[in-house]
Amino acid sequence: MCCCRGWFTGTVQLIDRKTGKTKEMLHDFKAPHDAVKLGDGSILVNELGSKSLVRASGEHGKDRTVVIGASRDRSGSSPDRAARSI
């Protein structure tokens, strides 16, 4: 399996290496830069838009957890930045 990402479209595409055919498209990432499929089937995605490393799992990668990032808030806003703007 090969992972390709679409920076502007916010997608990660899973491609079968043998056939070259798309197996699945995962959507709604924030400027995905790199992605890798892990042995357990989950996918780690480096999101430049949120400055986070996100683990996508479950059906169509809909279950997402921030592994490392400037914020654990999936909205992309930092709690510190939000507090300063009040």
Task: Please describe the topology of this protein.
Elements: E1 2-6, E2 11-15, E3 22-26, E4 32-37, E5 43-47, E6 52-57, E7 63-69, H1 79-84
Antiparallel strand pairs: 1-2, 2-3, 4-5, 5-6, 6-7
Task: Give the CA-CA distance, first to last residue.
Answer: 46 Å
The major beta sheet can be summarized as: 4 strands, antiparallel
The outline comes out as globular
Overall mean confidence score, pLDDT: 81
* Count of spatially separate domains: 1
Q: Number of DSSP strands?
A: 7
* Secondary-structure content class: mainly beta
Provide structural commentary.
- With 86 residues, the protein is mainly beta.
- It has one domain (2-84).
- Helices cover 7% and strands 45% of the residues.
- The protein is built from one helix and seven strands, in the order βββββββα.
- Strands 4-5-6-7 form a four-stranded antiparallel beta sheet, with no helix packed on it.
- The longest helix is centred in the C-terminal third of the chain and has 6 residues, at 79-84.
- The radius of gyration is 14 Å and the shape is globular.
- The termini are far apart.
- Residues 75-86 have low confidence and may be disordered.
